[in-house]
Amino acid sequence: MRTHRAEIRERRDRTGPYRSLVLDAPALAEAARPGQFVMIRVSDTTDPLLRRPFSLFRADGPAGTAEILFRIMGRGTSMLDRLQPGEKVDVVGPLGKPFPSLPMDEIVLVGGGVGIPPLFFYAEWIRGREPARNVHVLMGGRTKGDLVAREEFERLGIEVQAATDDGSAGHAGVVTDLLRPFLGPSHAILACGPAPMLKAVSEMATKSKTKCCVSVEERMACGLGVCMGCAVPVRSEGEARSYRLACTDGPVFDAEEVLW
Amino acid sequence: MTPNPDHLPGLDVDFAGIRLKNPVLAASGTFGYGSELSQEVDLNTLGGVITKGISLRPRSGNPPPRIVETPSGMLNAIGLQNVGLEAFLKDKLPYLRGFDTRVIVNIFGESVDEYRAVAAGLSGVEGVDALEVNVSCPNVKAGGIEFGTDVNQLKALISILKESTDKPLIVKLSPNVGRIADFARAAEEAGADGISLINTVIGMSIDPRTRRPRLANGTGGLSGPAIRPIAVRMVWETARAVKIPVLGMGGILTVEDALEFILAGASAVAVGTATFVNPRAAPDLVEGLRQFIARENIPHVSRLIGGVITGNA
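Predict the joint structure of the above. Result:
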């Protein structure tokens, strides 16, 4: 079952325009894997009509809770932000393919802003199951307020290296400036964030023959593979162009597969 | 029929020469090839499934962004992405055959020859109950809309397809025309067994900051509750103009919405965009209709078809 009527257990204000909601959804929490997402209906009316996709930030099977972390962007996320603990939301998930299991010793998580949730879920997951792996986090953003969940990574014992466009925290520049020491065959990169960042990370990974998986964001109506709205251009043999669906073929893709 | 006090009010209807166990179908392009929603929907509960549009060869579709939300609706310009006839027959149809529901295959082509080839390729195929001829996709230049907006071309196409296949033909009309009844009559005269409508309404959305259309294709097809009144009106006009049955669709979310279409003259209804919002929209509608006619003491849903009361009493 992928449809849930979930009660909001807790609402958390995070840095800047970021918020998170802890949902009481045992079946979802049990089934979810890092990299997967949910579709949430933010209102019971027809405007806005469509569900909104959110990457899972955390899923706690034993506790029966799942958490999403989002940025207040427009009407949909503003409506979601007004919901209070005790209220219920309509959730479909977990959806999409999770991050693959990777054999490399050094796991490098690269992202920023709303790209952080799937990376944190992965970090917590791997810490709980394979504590011997080294996990590195490179976090970027426009400003300090975009460095969400930094303390939660640090609580897992993971060092976070930050970069901000305005220099308000960490390195003044883009997150890929920090990536060079983490390239090579013993490393695997998992990246999630804006397309220009993913493109830059993918190019560095490809040149250095570093394994790299990206989690992409694309507009989608259903999240279930039936609307075919969330097309991701991919490399193909022969054909002029070819697309895969972010919702069911992804959202995680091998970086070499995506045509940026 | 002998009256039976335990008999649940009937929902089965005849449509275009096939018997539907209930008048609720999944609309083309909103239900994939049937297997995608297997976790949410028991296909046995539906009157039928209309597949994603099938062309002779696979099509990759339009570049993204392909969708944008609009007030009580959405615009799409998917561009008829599909696996093509061969892969449909080999990989998709066997799954659908496993259920006790009607399978209607939506077909389209870039030319009369391609339409004919797809219709012929599905002729005699076991497990295909009818063909829905898409002459109304607004998002692909040669995606059929030239046939759906020219009465003579439509008539010629349907006449040819009628001879190319043994399956009932349902013609899916475009709402992007002046007088819908003319097209419905043309389809009927050419031998169509049923009419389905409406396909999406051509629309456009522009981002004022970038000054660019929000869809890569520029324009797209509007669907959802926003188009429902247009759809109900066109079903009403069509049902009065032809003798063949009408399959109504356009923004149906609830039982009340479906009843509007049935009262306007639709023998059956299809659920489209609602499935994106609620994957169980179609089976929920079947159950809702069952409850409605039981509650209202209506012996059979067919009693409601075309039952709208107009004019002065």
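Residues 104 and 210 of chain A are 10 Å apart (CA to CA).
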